[in-house]
Amino acid sequence: NKNLEQLFSGKENLILKTYNEHLYKRTEIVKLKQGSIVFSGLVKGVNNAGKLIVENDVEHIFETGSIEWIH
Q1: Mean pLDDT by 10 residues, the chain (71 residues)
Q2: For FRET with 47, which of 7, 18, 19, 35 sits at 20 to 30 Å CA-CA?
Q3: Residue 55 contacts residue 30 (beta carbons within 8 Å)
Q4: Cα(41)–Cα(4) distance, integer angstroms
């Protein structure tokens, strides 16, 4: 498997770059919900720790499961 070969050969950044290139709604403004707060933001990508990066005036980083997509 090409991705496993890249991972074991130290090319983690290439895998993350490829993942972000295919990330759902990346570079789009989306509506999100955290608790009772609904807000909009630009999906910028996922960092190397697997956290979602969203920008709305400032950059925010969210843990998996801490926000919901509002459609």
Answers
A1: 63 82 96 96 95 96 95 83
A2: 35
A3: no
A4: 33
